[in-house]
Amino acid sequence: MLSTLLATLPLRAAEPRLQAVVDAAYAAFREDEGGEVAGYIPALAKVDPAHFAVVIVTVDGEVHVAGDSGRSFAIMSAAKPFTLALLLQQLGPGIVLEKIGVEPTGLPFNALSNIENPPLAPLNPMVNAGAITAVSLLQAASAAERWSGLLDWYSAFAGERLELLEPVYQSVASGGYRNHAVADLLQLHGMLGASPAETLDVYNRQSSVGVTARQLAVMGATLANGGLNPLTGQQVMRRDYVDEVLALMLLSGFYDESGWWAYTAGIPAKSGVGGGVVAVVPGRMAIAGYSPRLSPAGNSVRGMRAVQYIASELELSLFLPVHRARNSRHGEN
Ligand code: GLN
Protein backbone atom coordinates (compact mmCIF):
# COMPACT_ATOMS: atom_id res chain seq x y z
CA MET A 1 0.00 0.00 0.00
CA LEU A 2 2.82 2.34 0.89
CA SER A 3 4.55 1.60 -2.38
CA THR A 4 1.39 2.50 -4.30
CA LEU A 5 1.27 5.82 -2.51
CA LEU A 6 4.98 6.43 -3.04
CA ALA A 7 4.83 5.64 -6.75
CA THR A 8 2.33 8.43 -7.31
CA LEU A 9 4.52 11.18 -5.85
CA PRO A 10 7.47 12.77 -7.64
CA LEU A 11 10.74 12.26 -5.77
CA ARG A 12 11.68 15.95 -5.69
CA ALA A 13 8.56 16.89 -3.79
CA ALA A 14 10.20 14.70 -1.26
CA GLU A 15 9.49 15.83 2.31
CA PRO A 16 6.40 13.84 3.27
CA ARG A 17 7.26 10.90 1.09
CA LEU A 18 10.78 10.37 2.41
CA GLN A 19 9.73 10.87 6.03
CA ALA A 20 6.92 8.35 5.46
CA VAL A 21 9.31 5.73 4.15
CA VAL A 22 11.80 6.31 7.00
CA ASP A 23 8.97 5.92 9.52
CA ALA A 24 7.67 2.83 7.73
CA ALA A 25 11.13 1.18 7.69
CA TYR A 26 11.54 1.92 11.39
CA ALA A 27 8.11 0.49 12.22
CA ALA A 28 8.63 -2.58 10.02
CA PHE A 29 11.80 -3.73 11.83
CA ARG A 30 11.42 -2.23 15.27
CA GLU A 31 10.53 -5.58 16.83
CA ASP A 32 13.05 -7.56 14.78
CA GLU A 33 15.53 -9.26 17.14
CA GLY A 34 17.60 -11.07 14.52
CA GLY A 35 21.39 -11.20 14.96
CA GLU A 36 23.85 -10.89 17.83
CA VAL A 37 25.75 -7.93 19.28
CA ALA A 38 29.51 -8.04 18.50
CA GLY A 39 31.04 -10.14 21.26
CA TYR A 40 34.72 -9.85 20.45
CA ILE A 41 35.09 -6.21 21.50
CA PRO A 42 34.04 -5.92 25.19
CA ALA A 43 32.85 -2.29 24.90
CA LEU A 44 30.54 -3.25 22.02
CA ALA A 45 29.19 -6.32 23.82
CA LYS A 46 27.74 -3.98 26.46
CA VAL A 47 25.69 -1.84 24.07
CA ASP A 48 21.89 -2.04 24.43
CA PRO A 49 20.73 -4.16 21.47
CA ALA A 50 17.38 -2.35 21.38
CA HIS A 51 18.91 0.80 19.87
CA PHE A 52 17.55 1.39 16.40
CA ALA A 53 17.66 4.34 14.03
CA VAL A 54 16.86 5.00 10.38
CA VAL A 55 17.91 8.20 8.61
CA ILE A 56 17.78 9.63 5.10
CA VAL A 57 19.80 12.69 4.11
CA THR A 58 19.30 13.93 0.57
CA VAL A 59 21.74 15.80 -1.67
CA ASP A 60 19.51 18.83 -1.13
CA GLY A 61 20.23 18.65 2.59
CA GLU A 62 16.85 17.33 3.70
CA VAL A 63 17.15 15.20 6.84
CA HIS A 64 14.56 12.56 7.78
CA VAL A 65 15.01 10.56 10.98
CA ALA A 66 13.31 7.86 13.02
CA GLY A 67 14.35 6.23 16.29
CA ASP A 68 17.67 6.74 18.11
CA SER A 69 19.15 8.94 15.38
CA GLY A 70 21.09 11.13 17.82
CA ARG A 71 22.73 8.33 19.81
CA SER A 72 26.50 7.91 19.34
CA PHE A 73 27.97 4.52 18.51
CA ALA A 74 31.35 3.29 17.29
CA ILE A 75 31.75 3.80 13.55
CA MET A 76 34.04 0.74 13.21
CA SER A 77 34.35 -0.40 9.60
CA ALA A 78 31.87 2.16 8.32
CA ALA A 79 34.91 4.48 8.50
CA LYS A 80 36.73 2.49 5.81
CA PRO A 81 35.22 4.20 2.73
CA PHE A 82 36.16 7.59 4.18
CA THR A 83 39.75 6.55 4.88
CA LEU A 84 39.91 5.26 1.31
CA ALA A 85 38.57 8.66 0.19
CA LEU A 86 41.43 10.43 1.99
CA LEU A 87 44.01 8.11 0.44
CA LEU A 88 42.54 8.81 -3.02
CA GLN A 89 42.52 12.53 -2.34
CA GLN A 90 46.18 12.45 -1.29
CA LEU A 91 47.65 9.99 -3.79
CA GLY A 92 45.08 9.30 -6.53
CA PRO A 93 43.43 6.02 -7.60
CA GLY A 94 46.64 4.34 -8.78
CA ILE A 95 47.91 3.78 -5.24
CA VAL A 96 44.97 1.50 -4.45
CA LEU A 97 45.56 -0.67 -7.52
CA GLU A 98 49.27 -0.78 -6.88
CA LYS A 99 49.46 -1.28 -3.12
CA ILE A 100 46.13 -2.67 -1.88
CA GLY A 101 43.87 -4.17 -4.54
CA VAL A 102 40.22 -3.85 -5.46
CA GLU A 103 38.96 -7.43 -5.75
CA PRO A 104 36.34 -8.84 -3.37
CA THR A 105 37.85 -11.40 -1.02
CA GLY A 106 34.74 -13.51 -0.35
CA LEU A 107 36.22 -13.88 3.14
CA PRO A 108 35.32 -12.54 6.59
CA PHE A 109 36.41 -8.95 7.33
CA ASN A 110 39.22 -10.03 9.64
CA ALA A 111 40.61 -12.83 7.44
CA LEU A 112 44.27 -13.75 7.57
CA SER A 113 44.27 -16.56 5.01
CA ASN A 114 44.53 -14.23 2.01
CA ILE A 115 47.62 -12.48 3.36
CA GLU A 116 49.45 -15.46 4.80
CA ASN A 117 51.62 -16.57 1.90
CA PRO A 118 52.76 -14.87 -1.30
CA PRO A 119 51.43 -14.53 -3.86
CA LEU A 120 48.78 -12.88 -1.72
CA ALA A 121 45.13 -13.52 -2.49
CA PRO A 122 42.75 -10.60 -3.24
CA LEU A 123 42.57 -7.68 -0.88
CA ASN A 124 40.61 -4.43 -0.90
CA PRO A 125 40.20 -1.33 1.31
CA MET A 126 36.83 -2.50 2.75
CA VAL A 127 38.30 -5.44 4.72
CA ASN A 128 40.64 -5.11 7.68
CA ALA A 129 43.89 -6.04 5.89
CA GLY A 130 43.25 -3.56 3.08
CA ALA A 131 41.99 -0.86 5.44
CA ILE A 132 45.02 -1.26 7.70
CA THR A 133 47.24 -0.94 4.63
CA ALA A 134 45.28 2.18 3.59
CA VAL A 135 45.87 3.79 6.99
CA SER A 136 49.61 3.09 6.69
CA LEU A 137 49.79 4.71 3.26
CA LEU A 138 48.17 8.02 4.30
CA GLN A 139 50.52 10.96 3.98
CA ALA A 140 51.44 12.22 7.45
CA ALA A 141 54.54 13.68 9.08
CA SER A 142 53.88 11.95 12.40
CA ALA A 143 51.60 9.42 14.09
CA ALA A 144 49.69 12.28 15.73
CA GLU A 145 49.11 13.90 12.36
CA ARG A 146 48.05 10.60 10.75
CA TRP A 147 45.29 10.41 13.34
CA SER A 148 44.30 14.09 13.55
CA GLY A 149 44.19 14.34 9.76
CA LEU A 150 41.78 11.41 9.61
CA LEU A 151 39.53 12.74 12.35
CA ASP A 152 39.39 16.17 10.68
CA TRP A 153 38.57 14.46 7.38
CA TYR A 154 35.71 12.39 8.85
CA SER A 155 34.41 15.51 10.63
CA ALA A 156 34.25 17.43 7.35
CA PHE A 157 32.15 14.61 5.87
CA ALA A 158 29.85 14.67 8.90
CA GLY A 159 29.70 18.48 8.94
CA GLU A 160 30.26 18.34 12.69
CA ARG A 161 33.21 17.75 14.98
CA LEU A 162 33.48 14.01 15.61
CA GLU A 163 35.19 12.58 18.70
CA LEU A 164 36.95 9.41 19.75
CA LEU A 165 34.88 7.16 22.05
CA GLU A 166 37.64 6.63 24.61
CA PRO A 167 36.22 3.49 26.31
CA VAL A 168 35.73 1.85 22.91
CA TYR A 169 39.29 2.73 21.88
CA GLN A 170 40.67 1.29 25.15
CA SER A 171 38.64 -1.86 24.63
CA VAL A 172 39.71 -2.27 20.99
CA ALA A 173 43.36 -1.51 21.78
CA SER A 174 43.58 -3.94 24.68
CA GLY A 175 42.53 -6.91 22.51
CA GLY A 176 42.52 -6.97 18.75
CA TYR A 177 44.89 -9.91 18.35
CA ARG A 178 43.71 -10.74 14.85
CA ASN A 179 44.38 -7.19 13.71
CA HIS A 180 47.85 -7.39 15.29
CA ALA A 181 48.42 -10.54 13.26
CA VAL A 182 47.12 -8.82 10.12
CA ALA A 183 49.43 -5.82 10.60
CA ASP A 184 52.43 -8.06 11.31
CA LEU A 185 51.79 -10.18 8.21
CA LEU A 186 51.39 -7.06 6.07
CA GLN A 187 54.69 -5.75 7.42
CA LEU A 188 56.34 -9.11 6.75
CA HIS A 189 55.26 -8.81 3.11
CA GLY A 190 56.50 -5.22 2.86
CA MET A 191 53.05 -3.78 2.30
CA LEU A 192 52.85 -1.15 5.04
CA GLY A 193 53.80 2.49 4.57
CA ALA A 194 54.26 3.05 8.33
CA SER A 195 55.24 0.87 11.30
CA PRO A 196 52.73 -1.81 12.36
CA ALA A 197 52.40 -0.21 15.82
CA GLU A 198 51.61 3.28 14.48
CA THR A 199 49.34 1.91 11.78
CA LEU A 200 47.36 -0.28 14.16
CA ASP A 201 46.95 2.48 16.71
CA VAL A 202 45.51 4.86 14.10
CA TYR A 203 43.33 2.05 12.70
CA ASN A 204 41.99 1.33 16.21
CA ARG A 205 41.26 5.01 16.70
CA GLN A 206 39.45 5.27 13.38
CA SER A 207 37.25 2.33 14.39
CA SER A 208 36.47 4.02 17.73
CA VAL A 209 35.18 7.31 16.35
CA GLY A 210 31.69 8.03 17.64
CA VAL A 211 28.96 8.87 15.15
CA THR A 212 25.20 9.15 15.30
CA ALA A 213 23.08 7.62 12.54
CA ARG A 214 22.33 11.17 11.45
CA GLN A 215 26.04 12.03 11.20
CA LEU A 216 26.76 8.80 9.34
CA ALA A 217 23.97 9.64 6.89
CA VAL A 218 25.44 13.11 6.29
CA MET A 219 28.82 11.47 5.63
CA GLY A 220 27.13 9.22 3.07
CA ALA A 221 25.17 12.10 1.57
CA THR A 222 28.46 13.91 0.99
CA LEU A 223 29.54 10.96 -1.16
CA ALA A 224 26.11 10.90 -2.85
CA ASN A 225 26.58 14.60 -3.62
CA GLY A 226 29.92 14.27 -5.40
CA GLY A 227 32.01 15.00 -2.32
CA LEU A 228 30.19 18.22 -1.45
CA ASN A 229 28.64 18.18 2.02
CA PRO A 230 24.98 19.11 1.43
CA LEU A 231 24.61 20.64 4.90
CA THR A 232 27.78 22.72 5.12
CA GLY A 233 28.31 23.40 1.42
CA GLN A 234 31.98 22.37 1.74
CA GLN A 235 33.58 20.45 -1.14
CA VAL A 236 35.21 17.87 1.10
CA MET A 237 36.78 15.57 -1.49
CA ARG A 238 37.47 15.59 -5.20
CA ARG A 239 34.32 14.79 -7.11
CA ASP A 240 36.13 12.54 -9.61
CA TYR A 241 37.27 10.08 -6.93
CA VAL A 242 33.83 9.41 -5.47
CA ASP A 243 33.02 6.67 -7.99
CA GLU A 244 36.06 4.62 -6.95
CA VAL A 245 34.88 4.71 -3.35
CA LEU A 246 31.33 3.70 -4.27
CA ALA A 247 32.48 0.88 -6.55
CA LEU A 248 34.43 -0.71 -3.72
CA MET A 249 31.55 -0.23 -1.28
CA LEU A 250 29.22 -2.08 -3.63
CA LEU A 251 31.68 -4.93 -4.25
CA SER A 252 32.97 -5.44 -0.70
CA GLY A 253 31.09 -3.26 1.78
CA PHE A 254 29.51 -6.25 3.51
CA TYR A 255 32.47 -8.66 3.17
CA ASP A 256 31.24 -12.17 2.41
CA GLU A 257 27.65 -10.89 2.29
CA SER A 258 28.44 -8.31 -0.39
CA GLY A 259 27.16 -10.34 -3.34
CA TRP A 260 23.87 -10.95 -1.59
CA TRP A 261 23.66 -7.24 -0.74
CA ALA A 262 24.26 -6.13 -4.33
CA TYR A 263 21.74 -8.71 -5.52
CA THR A 264 19.02 -7.64 -3.09
CA ALA A 265 19.62 -3.89 -2.61
CA GLY A 266 21.70 -2.76 -5.59
CA ILE A 267 23.29 0.28 -3.94
CA PRO A 268 26.79 0.81 -2.50
CA ALA A 269 26.86 0.53 1.28
CA LYS A 270 29.20 -0.10 4.19
CA SER A 271 28.68 -1.56 7.62
CA GLY A 272 30.55 -1.54 10.91
CA VAL A 273 30.41 -3.98 13.82
CA GLY A 274 29.22 -1.06 15.97
CA GLY A 275 25.87 -1.54 14.21
CA GLY A 276 26.05 1.22 11.62
CA VAL A 277 25.19 0.90 7.94
CA VAL A 278 25.53 3.70 5.41
CA ALA A 279 24.18 3.32 1.88
CA VAL A 280 24.76 5.82 -0.91
CA VAL A 281 22.48 6.52 -3.85
CA PRO A 282 24.63 8.64 -6.17
CA GLY A 283 23.14 12.03 -6.97
CA ARG A 284 20.19 11.47 -4.66
CA MET A 285 20.66 10.55 -1.02
CA ALA A 286 22.27 8.45 1.68
CA ILE A 287 20.42 6.09 3.99
CA ALA A 288 21.86 5.18 7.37
CA GLY A 289 20.70 2.48 9.75
CA TYR A 290 21.88 1.79 13.26
CA SER A 291 21.16 -1.35 15.23
CA PRO A 292 23.81 -3.28 17.19
CA ARG A 293 22.68 -6.85 16.41
CA LEU A 294 24.81 -8.33 13.64
CA SER A 295 24.58 -11.09 11.07
CA PRO A 296 27.25 -13.83 11.21
CA ALA A 297 29.24 -11.80 8.65
CA GLY A 298 29.28 -8.83 11.06
CA ASN A 299 26.68 -6.61 9.40
CA SER A 300 23.81 -4.91 11.24
CA VAL A 301 20.70 -7.01 10.62
CA ARG A 302 18.10 -4.29 11.11
CA GLY A 303 20.40 -1.73 9.50
CA MET A 304 20.54 -3.83 6.34
CA ARG A 305 16.83 -4.63 6.41
CA ALA A 306 15.82 -1.00 6.86
CA VAL A 307 18.01 0.12 3.96
CA GLN A 308 16.75 -2.72 1.77
CA TYR A 309 13.19 -1.79 2.58
CA ILE A 310 13.74 1.85 1.62
CA ALA A 311 15.71 0.91 -1.50
CA SER A 312 12.86 -1.31 -2.58
CA GLU A 313 10.05 1.15 -1.76
CA LEU A 314 11.79 4.02 -3.56
CA GLU A 315 13.20 1.82 -6.36
CA LEU A 316 16.72 2.99 -5.64
CA SER A 317 18.72 0.07 -7.06
CA LEU A 318 21.34 1.42 -9.44
CA PHE A 319 20.41 -1.38 -11.80
CA LEU A 320 16.75 -0.49 -12.25
CA PRO A 321 16.12 1.16 -15.63
CA VAL A 322 12.99 2.69 -14.09
CA HIS A 323 15.23 4.76 -11.81
CA ARG A 324 16.66 6.68 -14.77
CA ALA A 325 13.30 7.06 -16.49
CA ARG A 326 11.73 8.51 -13.38
CA ASN A 327 14.65 10.87 -12.79
CA SER A 328 14.58 12.30 -16.26
CA ARG A 329 10.80 12.77 -16.09
CA HIS A 330 11.33 14.99 -13.11
CA GLY A 331 14.27 16.85 -14.54
CA GLU A 332 16.92 15.38 -12.26
CA ASN A 333 20.35 14.56 -13.56
N1 GLN B 1 37.65 -2.42 14.55
C1 GLN B 1 36.97 -3.54 14.02
C2 GLN B 1 37.97 -4.62 13.72
O1 GLN B 1 38.94 -4.32 13.07
C3 GLN B 1 36.20 -3.16 12.79
C4 GLN B 1 35.63 -4.36 12.09
C5 GLN B 1 34.27 -4.12 11.49
O2 GLN B 1 33.57 -3.19 11.81
N2 GLN B 1 33.88 -5.05 10.66
O3 GLN B 1 37.83 -5.73 14.13
Task: Explain the overall architecture.
The protein is α+β, with helices and mostly antiparallel strands. The protein has helices at 2-7, 15-29, 42-45, 80-91, 94-99, 128-137, 143-158, 166-174, 177-188, 196-207, 213-224, 242-252, 258-264, 301-313, 321-329; strands spanning 36-37, 53-58, 63-67, 73-74, 163-164, 209-211, 269-271, 276-281, 285-290, 293-294. The chain has a five-stranded antiparallel sheet with strand order 3-2-9-8-7, sandwiched between helices. It has a three-stranded antiparallel sheet with strand order 4-6-5. The longest helix has 16 residues, at 143-158. Bound molecules: glutamine. The site of glutamine has 11 residues, from loops. Glutamine binds next to loops.
Quick rundown:
By secondary structure, the protein is of the alpha+beta class. It has helices at residues 2-7, 15-29, 42-45, 80-91, 94-99, 128-137, 143-158, 166-174, 177-188, 196-207, 213-224, 242-252, 258-264, 301-313, 321-329; strands spanning 36-37, 53-58, 63-67, 73-74, 163-164, 209-211, 269-271, 276-281, 285-290, 293-294.
Features:
disordered C terminus, 5-stranded antiparallel β-sheet, Beta-lactamase, binds glutamine, 3-stranded antiparallel β-sheet, alpha+beta, 333 residues, 11% strand
How is the secondary structure organized here?
Blueprint (H helix, E strand, L loop, with lengths): L1 H6 L7 H15 L6 E2 L4 H4 L7 E6 L4 E5 L5 E2 L5 H12 L2 H6 L28 H10 L5 H16 L4 E2 L1 H9 L2 H12 L7 H12 L1 E3 L1 H12 L17 H11 L5 H7 L4 E3 L4 E6 L3 E6 L2 E2 L6 H13 L7 H9 L4
Antiparallel strand pairs: 1-10, 2-3, 2-9, 4-6, 5-6, 7-8, 8-9
Helix pairs in contact: 2-14, 4-6, 4-12, 6-9, 6-10, 7-10, 7-11, 9-10
Bound molecules: glutamine.
Glutamine binds next to loops.
